[in-house]
Amino acid sequence: MTDTLEDFIRGLPKAELHLHIEGSLEPEQMFEFGRRNRVDMPFRSVEEVRAAYAFSNLQDFLDIYYQGAEVLRTEQDFHDMAMAYFGRLHADGGVHAEIFFDPQTHTDRGLPFSVAVEGLLSGMKAAEAEFGISSGLIMCFLRHLDEDAALATLKAAEPWLDRMVGVGLDSAEVGHPPSKFQRVFRAARERGLMLCAHAGEEGPPEYVWEALDLLKVDRIDHGNRALEDEALVQRLVASEMTLTVCPLSNLKLRGVQDLKEHPLKRMLDLGLKATCNADDPSYFGGSICENFTQTARALDLSREEIVTLARNSFTGSFLDEERVARHLAAIDAYA
Ligand code: ADE
Ligand code: ZN
User: Fold this and answer.
1) Domain segments of the chain: what residues?
2) C or N terminus of the chain, fewer CB within 10 Å?
3) Cα–Cα distance, 49 to 285 (Å, whole number)
4) How much distance in Å is there from the Cα of 74 to the middle of ligand 1?
5) Is 290 a catalytic site residue?
6) What is the pLDDT of residues 10-43, one digit of tens each?
7) Fold adopted by 5-334
8) Which pTM does this prediction carry?
C-alpha cells in the first residue's frame, strides 16, 4: 500500500531553512573522504559511526559532529558533500535551501578560508544546474568561541560576502548568549547580510529576546523555549518572525522525549510562523521529508497545517518577493 501522507509531503514544494551542511555528511561519505584524504578515523565501519550517534544533549552531539568534520580537507570534499545533500533534497521535493556552514570549524584546523566556501559555492551552482534547486549560503559563528574570533571570521569572509545571504550563530548555546555577539551582528547587518541565530534550542527565553532586541535577527533558529514566555510568543506572532524548527533534532538531543510532545503543532495553533527542517540530517536520522512525515504522524497534523509549514518555508526565506510568489503559486497548484 502506498503511504499517501508521505507521498503528499514528498510532492509538496518546500524550502529547507535550517540545515548545517556539515551535518549532512553521511557516514559512507565520511569514510570515502577519510580514505581519499588519508585521515585516521576513530571508527572502523559505517555501523560503528551510526552506533556512536546516541546523544543525550547538544554538547554530546557537537563533540562528535566536529570530529566528523575532520575528514573534510579539499574544495572537492565540500562540493561533493553539498551535491549529495542537494540530490537528497531534490528527491524529497525540496526546491530551495538556505544552508549553514561553520567556517571556524575548518579554519581552526588549518584549512584556508577559501576551501569550504569555494567548494560549497561550487556545489550550490552545480545543484542549480542539475536539480534546479536554488540556494543561499549562511555563515555561522561558533558561539563557544569569543566575539573577536567571529569578527576575524567576518573579515576573512569579505571576498565572498556578496555571495552569501546571511550570517548565523550556532554551537553550544547555554552560557553563550546572543548578547556576546552584538558587534559582529551589527557589522554583518551594515554589510547588508540577513541575520539568524540559534536561540531557545536549549537556552532560555531570554536568549530569544536577546536575539531579537540585541542582534536584531531576521529569523530564529529553533525557538522552542520561547513557548515558556507568553509575552515573547506575542512578540514573535506580532512580528511574524520565522522559527526554523527541527523536530527530529529536538528528539535526538532530548529537547522532547517523544515526538508526540513536540511543540510544532502548538506553535502553529498560537499563530507562530514555524517551519519544519532537518538541522543535521545525517546525525538525527532524517531528511526534511522524514521530519515532516514523522511529525505530521505524531501530532496528527492536517493537510492544511502541512501546507502552512511549506508556505512558511518560502515566506520565511530570504528569496525576493517575486520568487516567493512563484513558489506559493506552485504550492497552491499542488494542494
Ligand atoms: N551546529 C550544528 N547543529 C547545531 C544545532 N542543532 N545547534 C547548535 N549548533 C549546531
Ligand atoms: Zn541548527
Assistant:
1) 5-334
2) N
3) 13
4) 23
5) no
6) 999 999 999 999 999 999 999 999 999 999 888 9
7) TIM Barrel (3.20.20)
8) 0.98
